[in-house]
Amino acid sequence: MATPKSRPRDGHPGKALAFILVVMVGLVGLMFAQNLTTPRLGIDLAGGTSVTLTASSKDPKAVNETNMATAASIMLKRVNGMGVSEAETQVQGSKNIIVNIPKGSGKDDTRNAVAQIGTTAKLYFRPVLATGVSVPKGAAKPAPAPSGSASGTKPSAGSSAKPSAPAASPAPSSTTAGRAVSRALQAGSTATPSTAPSAKGAAAKGAAAKGAAKASPAPSASAPASTDTPTSITTGGAVPADLAKQFAALDCTDQAQRSRNYQTSTTANAVACDEKESTQPGVPKGTYEKYALGPVAVNGVNVTDASAVFDTQRSMWIVQLKFDGTGAKGFTATTTQLAAKQSPQNQFAIVLDGQNVSAPQVTAPIPGNSAEITGSFTQKEADDLANVLKFGALPLDFTTQSVSTVSPQLGGEQLHAGLIAGAIGLGLVVLYSLVYYRGLGLVSIAGLVVSAVLTYSIMCLLGKAIGFALNLPAVCGAIVAIGITADSFIVYFERIRDEVREGAQLRTAVQRAWPRARRTILVSDFVSFLAAAVLYIVSVGKVQGFAFTLGLTTLLDVVVIFLFTKPLITLLARTKFFGGGHPWSGLDPKRLGARPPIRGGRRRTGRPSVAKEA
Question: Any idea what the Cα angle at residue 80 is, between residues 75 and 84, rounded to 5°?
């Protein structure tokens, strides 16, 4: 009894093609919407900056292979932590480290990266004894806060500082004892006590509160006064006489004094300038804050982790940090002491290479090994502070020997040669497809175009999303991907032609060939992706660019073959040109030696059918 022939189940190829078309249009549209029409280029293609650093230490034995490797790793993390991708560090000789920073992140980011690389001294947490500002000579000095003002120099924008009578809210003042970004230090995620002023109230008054300062004490031998230095205004409690003299003489408007490292000992008092110019309203341009600091309370090497996080409950950026056992012990003891003091002596100064990075207030004792810094941060400010805290401490001292610009000319010539080679290879693949597969060759060409559009748009978008930079090895990976994609087409085409040779009609052949071709393609792509993943993990530098591109294009090959090639061939099999076995379709049964040959879906007489449809 003959079984009725059933129609081949070929799914809904139109939906798959529509889906991949929407994805392509979406990626290209997003690329143009964000003005990311070209990929970020690595230092070998775009040029960049090369910095040479020389290590030094009081202990000659400290400059060893282990410490140099550790320093190079920290420098790489520090630069990449700023979003400057494809940076490279390498140890040269016994004392030098070369850092290569590619161009493409913008001049400001490059300068910032170079500055952070050169800032290679120790990271310290020091209690603040007194604060002041240095204004440029000849500029009008900001007036001190009205007598009796009880606000701290750095009010919290995201939490409540310890309140003090008699003022519930500080009076506006042009004094810039506070930094451009006010900050407060709190334990973990502990909420502000209900007895303290509300966080919302503090944030609402942030603009007026910033810069309000406690009235300066009367001049004395133990406290620096505003008359000691014409360019300084000071506030704070009594400090030792020798430190007061040094603090009064410090002029942070002088580049030489501002960049000097006064951290001569971890057990001695010190002074420091802010690393950035004050942007408080009402102060002269070129104004900098300065600090009188106590001995080191926590060493930067005791910070195990730091990250910038957006707190959705408080709608603000915060910096979370963690300490090891030694750091947690010292941090707890110091914050307990600072929390009981008035501003500015309840502040911590985070000092890197002699310059103050941040000086948050301590609102309560902080037990445990974690804390958070809150305030009116922007995302970039939070990221920069977290980067300094996480990667600030180095095992050696370094001096910048040279900063030079790398020309992209050589890399450009190599890229030109590589693109020519890629174009020749692509041309040969296209020619082979058209000569050997005829009409089917057009399918493979269309698949290569789809793969190219997806690859290019994703590379452009990843430059901003994860800092991916296209270098010469990455270009090689993209060229290799041409062969991977073409190979998948060939596997599927040959499986279809095998089915046609066995006597199956084309629509049936397309469906029967797919399971066998799919298995072969997946195994092949899995091996390629596995090789790319292993290479990416074990390699460093530019080789990772090759591995990343190879892995990305391998995944895209699976997407293209499943969502484009197979559905397109399914639709073409329904047409007269392909389904009827036209000689130029590439599926002519006669040319393939089919037994029996099939044309137009009808079996020729004179020869029995080899395969019956189920």
Answer: 120
CB 308 within 8 A of CB 319: yes
The CATH number linked to 429 is: 1.20.1640.10
Distance CA 172, CA 192 (A): 24
Backbone torsions φ then ψ of 448, nearest 5 degrees: -65, -40
pTM summary value: 0.51
Residues 362, 325 share a domain: yes
Q: How far is CA 67 from CA 143, 391, 612, in A?
A: 49, 15, 73
Other beta carbons within 10 angstroms of residue 349's beta carbon come to: 26
The SS3 call for residue 225 is coil
Q: Three-state SS across 257-318?
A: HHHCCCCCCCCCCEEEEECCCCCCCCCCCCCEEEEEECCCCEEHHHEEEEEEEEECCCCEEE
Three-state SS sequence of 412-428: HHHHHHHHHHHHHHHHH
Question: Which residue range forms the structural domain that includes residue 203?
Answer: 121-137+150-161+172-392
With vertex at residue 609, the alpha carbon angle to CA 604 and CA 614, rounded to the nearest 5 degrees, is 120
Joined tokens for residue 168: 């519930």
Distance CA 128, CA 271 (A): 9
Strands (DSSP E) found in 324-472: 348-352, 355-358, 361-362, 370-377, 397-406
Q: Name the CA dihedral angle for 145, 150, 154, 157, rounded to a multiple of 10 degrees.
A: -110
**Tokens 């990626």 sit on residue:** 27
69 and 128 fall within a common domain? no
Mean pLDDT by 10 residues, the chain (614 residues): 49 84 92 86 75 82 80 76 68 83 60 64 83 80 38 30 30 31 32 31 32 31 37 59 89 83 85 85 84 89 86 89 89 89 86 82 86 83 79 72 73 75 85 85 89 91 80 84 86 87 81 89 92 84 82 92 90 82 78 59 44 40
* 478-481-483-486 Cα dihedral, nearest 10 degrees: -120
DSSP state of 41: B
